[in-house]
Amino acid sequence: MAKTQTNVTELDPVWRQITREAEEAVQEEPLMGGLVHACVLHHRSIERALSYRFAAKLSSNEMSMVILREIADEAYAAAPEISEAARADLMAIYERDPACHRLLQPILYFKGFQAVQAYRIGHWLWQQGRTDLAYFIQMRTSEIFGIDIHPAATIGKGIMIDHAHSIVIGETAVVGDNVSMLHSVTLGGTGKEEEDRHPKIGDGVLIGAGAKVLGNIKVGHCSRVAAGSVVLQEVPPCTTVAGVPAKVVGEAGCDQPSVSMVQELPESDQG
User: Fold this and answer.
1) 235: which strand partners?
2) Where does the record place the Serine acetyltransferase N-terminal domain (predicted)?
3) How far apart are CA 73 and CA 52, in angstroms?
4) Is 147 left (phi over 0), alpha (psi -120 to 50) or beta?
5) Whole-angstrom distance between the N-terminal and C-terminal Cα of the chain?
């Protein structure tokens, strides 16, 4: 007797929700049918959909979509943690960004999500010693999305990069889990030294728009960096820093700043 084939979509609630939203999107706007089918409904898993989106966005005359998709498929097959991180990133955006109403949106439209997924494939290539391919992915990600993340940087899961324009994350930077940052954030060095020279961002940190964190310094867990700040010294856990140069201005105000996304400074520091 023939075995019953299990539908992968039925076993993956996140993918099931995405495909349901995709079907609704086509019904509501038939002109989106080609894009939605190509990016979502033609695929049997979120990994296949992300692989397609990665290849479609980053392909050029220099590197075909076919080759890029083979690279992505290889990465997802060899490293399940990449797709696990993608799911966590997707849920982070859905839960934290008031402009995100469907899980479908980041896959189709949000360059912060798409750029981080491209970084994850480039990081896997870097770990495999395939540095030239990793650099190529970094270059194309920067060209297409306006986000420059070195493939050697270490980034956790549950990452939300809102708006995402002009993000720079350096080679030896480390970003923990459940971090949120807004546009124009720089995690950079302070000179030409070639050793460990970039920031270490703890779990649950919120980094406001335009903030610069420079040098091999730690930003403690569940802390907040106010918009426009320039951070040159270590940030204690569960605090808020602001200013140029940044100084501690109070407590973080909640247990999970990156989830609450509250960016107001403590009242005592507002003038």
Assistant:
1) 219
2) 14-118
3) 9
4) beta
5) 77
- For residues 167 and 246, give the distance between their C-alpha atoms in angstroms, rounded to a whole number: 19
Q: Are 82 and 120 in contact (CB under 8 A)?
A: yes
As a three-state string, the secondary structure of 80-125 is HHHHHHHHHHHHHHHHHCCCCCCCHHHHHCCHHHHHHHHHHHHHHH
Q: How confident is the model at residue 3 (pLDDT cuts 50, 70, 90)?
A: very low
Looking at this protein, which amino acid is placed at residue 210?
G
The closest of 115, 124, 140, 117 to 75, measured between CA atoms, is 124
Of 120, 97, 99, 100, residue with least CA distance to 50 = 120
Tens of pLDDT, residues 28-76: 999 999 999 999 999 999 999 999 999 999 999 999 999 999 999 999 9
Contacts of residue 16, defined as CB under 8 A and 6 or more positions apart, other chains included, come to 9, 10
**Alpha carbon separation from 150 to 147, 186, 215, 230 (Å, rounded):** 10, 12, 15, 21
- Structure-token pair, residue 45: 């898993």
CA distance 141 to 59: 10
Question: Which domains does the chain carry?
Answer: 13-146 (1.10.3130.10), 153-270 (2.160.10.10)
Tell me whether the omega of the peptide bond preceding residue 245 falls within 30 degrees of 0, making it cis: yes
What is the secondary structure of 124-162 as a DSSP string?
HHHHTT-HHHHHHHHHHHHHHHSEEE-TTSEE-SS-EES
CA angle at residue 119 from 186 to 43, to 5 degrees? 140
